Amino acid sequence: MDRKRCLTEGTVLHNGIYRIERFISCGGFGCTYEASHIMLDKRVAIKEFFVKDFCNRNQATGHVTTGIDDMAELVDKLRRKFIDEAKILSRLSHPGIVHVTDVFEENGTAYYVMDYIEGQSLAQMASRKSIPTPIALGYIRQVCDALKYLHGKSLLHLDIKPANIMVDEQGNAILIDFGAAKQYYENDGENLSTVMGKTPGYSPIEQMGNNVVKFLPATDIYALGATAYKVLTGLNPPSANQIASGEETIAFPTNFSQHIQEAIEAAMQVNKNERPQSVDEFLEMLDDDDDATELDAEDSHLAPKYNQPKKAAPTQTMHNKVHTAMETIKKEGNAKVAFPKWVLAACAAMIVGVIIFFMVPEIAEAINEDDEMLEAVTDYPFINSHGVQFTYTGPVNEQGEPHGKGIGKYKDGTYEGEYVNGIKQGKALYATYDGINAFEGIYVDDKYFEGTLLYNDDSYYVGTFHDNKFYNGKFYDTDGTVYVYSNGMML
Fold first, then answer.
1. Does 331 score more than 60 pLDDT?
2. Which residue has the higher pLDDT, 65 or 190?
3. Cα 233 to chain center, whole Å?
């Protein structure tokens, strides 16, 4: 859309509450702006209802009119739906869904206000370089969680694509742009709104035509599969019409994971009845593994919800892999003569981690001096202060909490290392039962703090973490590519 048809910078809206700072983007049904809440001195995002094919704007006043008289009734109906859907979205509360904070009418049109997300979209990330598979899968699973919540409220997004998924500075994937969202009746899929999002490659065939009025979660599942295809392969998904006509097929790189390929192919079936009918079904396929075997009977209750874990890789093998990865880093570091500026800048940020690295063993040693005085337990069921349940073998304190060096069996893996009052705190090794990853390093308050996280494809990350997400460090992909993280963002 012509930028001249958008609001200009400095425009004040809603009786002086908001000020437009810059134009961000536009679609078929609206424009999005970065704005300021003037009194709160807070950045927000504002979505303006503007049907580009039917609406015009008076540049002097900002007022919006319908350019085609015959379309006035339709545009007015869509505007009312835009407002109704904004009200529905304002009642949603999920960390993976952008929060709508205000809605109002002005300039002959309507607006809703959202939290401004500091970060970048998956489309922006994928356009610069391929996203490492473990990280890309993490984003897809976060989107799945948000979509599951949305479907549980009888809402469909209907425009899922990498451009509508923002990744904030903490590594959280957040669904945005609900301009095409619809509410549906769960029993028959009848929709309450009429705005239709159509993005070739991501919209299923039922969205590309105009004769289908009933949609169910399987419509979003198609777009979810296409999004997974894009971020995992780096390739643009073919359009649903091309797939249906046989002109294009969904091609995958060689050595691509077979079960992930099958999950994506199932999600992108032309016939919506042949796709996974829920997010849970898609996740079950995405996390499936043909080589899976059952756990020992005594550990069967620890199996993850969506997949049957394969036989656990020996802890010592994972331990050796982590050490090998760490030795590689050391050799690489010794071979460098000149350091990039970002390394020098990161040194200051790492000082705190280094200090804690050396302090934690001293704390652990002090704890271990008392180990002999503590009662020891075996296969002791315990729920810590964070609500995490596990089975513990090792010393406990007077309150019966794991304290000192011990072994904890959790839902998805085994922890061998230090505990303080029931919380993972100190040097440790953690390996998942399904062999997906292993971590060796330092835990603080039950979370990764600093160390090496190794994935089963032999890619690995070395550095610090924030809320269990990469913070300052490097991710080494299997193809030799090195991704640098600074303050939680991939550079």
1. no
2. 65
3. 17
At 172, which helix (H) or strand (E)? Answer: none
Among 195-209, 226-240, 344-358, 469-483, the range with the most confident prediction by mean pLDDT is: 226-240
d(CA 203, CA 157): 11
**What pLDDT score does 265 carry?**
96
What DSSP letter does each residue of 259-282 carry, written as one string?
A: HHHHHHHHHT-SSGGGS-SSHHHH
One DSSP character per residue, 17-81 reads TEEEEEEEEE-SSEEEEEEEETTTTEEEEEEEE--TTTEEE-TTT--EEESSGGGHHHHHHHHHH
Do 218 and 152 form a contact (C-beta atoms < 8 A)?
no
Check: CB of residue 241 under 8 Å from CB of residue 222.
no
- Over the stretch 277-318, which tens digit does the pLDDT of each residue have? 999 999 999 886 443 333 333 333 323 333 333 333 344 455
Is this structure's pTM higher than 0.70? no
Q: 318: helix, coil or strand?
A: helix
Smallest CA-to-CA distance from 87 within 153, 151, 41, 27 is with 153
Alpha carbons 386 and 216: distance in angstroms, whole number: 37
The kind and range of the H/E element at 1 are: none
Secondary structure (3-state) at 191: strand
Which residues are within 8 A (CB) of 180 and not within 5 positions of it... i.e. 6 or more apart?
Answer: 29, 157, 158, 159, 195, 196, 197
DSSP string for residues in 374-416? SEEEEEEEEE-TTS-EEEEEEEE-TTS-B-EEEEEE-SSEEEE
Q: What is the C-alpha separation between 303 and 402, in angstroms, rounded?
A: 23
The 10 Å Cβ neighbour count of residue 208 is: 16
Question: CA-CA distances (angstroms) from residue 120 to 126, 158, 169, 173?
Answer: 10, 21, 8, 10
Cβ–Cβ under 8 Å, residues 452 and 325: yes
- 158 vs 179: CA distance, rounded Å: 9
Residue 114 CB partners (closer than 8 Å, separation 6+): 44, 45, 46, 47, 98, 99, 100, 101, 176
pLDDT of residue 173: 94
The pLDDT tens digits of the residues spanning 138-196 come to 899 999 999 999 999 888 888 899 999 999 888 899 998 775 656 554 444 444 444 45
pLDDT given for residue 70 in this prediction: 80
Least reliable range by pLDDT among 63-77, 246-260, 295-309, 355-369? 295-309
| Three-state secondary-structure class, residue 209 | coil
Q: Are 297 and 411 in contact (CB under 8 A)?
A: no
